[in-house]
Amino acid sequence: MPTGVSVVIITRNAASTLQNTLDAVQCFENVVIYDNGSTDDTFRIAAKYPNVSLHQGDFLGFGPTKRYAVSLAKHDWILSLDADEAPSPELIDSITKWINDASPSDLGEILRENWMMDQPVRYSGWGNDWLIRLFDRRRHNFNNAMVHETIPVSNISRVQRLSGTIKHTAVTDLSQFLEKINRYSNIRAESGRLKQYSVPAIFFKAVFAFLRTYFFQQGWRDGWRGLVIAVSNANGVFWKYMKNFLKTHY
User: Fold this and answer.
1) Contacts of residue 143, Cβ cutoff 8 Å, sequence gap at least 6
2) What is the pLDDT of residues 74-111, one digit of tens each?
3) How many whole angstroms separate alpha carbon 192 and alpha carbon 248?
4) E strands along 16-151, which residues?
5) Do 157 and 140 meet the contact criterion of CB atoms below 8 Å apart?
6) Pick from 17, 33, 1: which is nearest to 176 by CA?
7) Are 132 and 55 contacting, i.e. CB atoms less than 8 angstroms apart?
8) pTM of the predicted model, to two decimals?
9) Per the database entry, which stretches of residues form a coiled coil (predicted)?
10) Which of 18, 155, 181, 210 counts the highest number of beta carbons within 10 A?
11) Which of 50, 107, 104, 47 is nearest to 79 (CA)?
């Protein structure tokens, strides 16, 4: 059991994957769930686990929401997970050993395996996905990015790669792509931080997003999954900039 580490998860309608995540972290004595508006069985599922601390509140953007959820944890050392992610037993063992000698300046970088409809995606920008997910909140935390939040690294930070993986059940149904495109593009367009582009420029940026994913990032090697991801990325780029464009032109 990794002592002195809290798991922090933000949720919203995560019933389809949350049980798998919580089963994988039962050895942690403090798991914080901060829910922002679930209407499915997310809360009922989470309530079954005695190590889970449940909280509800508003969605403030991914970065600010995760920062607030981190503040609710019992311990300073934080393992941040999404509600569709599960750490492997090897990773938990690695954390247990690593945490004993870690200092607040240390950061744990973990390999995330991204799965789409029962198969791992190795290319398409989804492979070799190393993420900082283990940190001491006294020295590090998430930034305030509304989407694609990260944990900033300073000149005193020491990033160390851990053994084991996080299994990310990214997509179980193709409709999830459409839901994410709509939600994420709304958040980005409403953030006020996007640059304005003309309609032709938006079109070419979307085309480039497809080409980058499918050819430069070798999405074609992932078969139809790579094609779907490339089209989804192109749509995400198109809609976030088009929604931003329409705020001032319609």
Assistant:
1) 63, 149, 150, 151, 152
2) 999 999 999 999 999 999 999 999 999 999 999 999 99
3) 11
4) 30-35, 52-56, 77-82, 85-87, 106-116, 129-136
5) yes
6) 17
7) no
8) 0.94
9) none
10) 18
11) 107
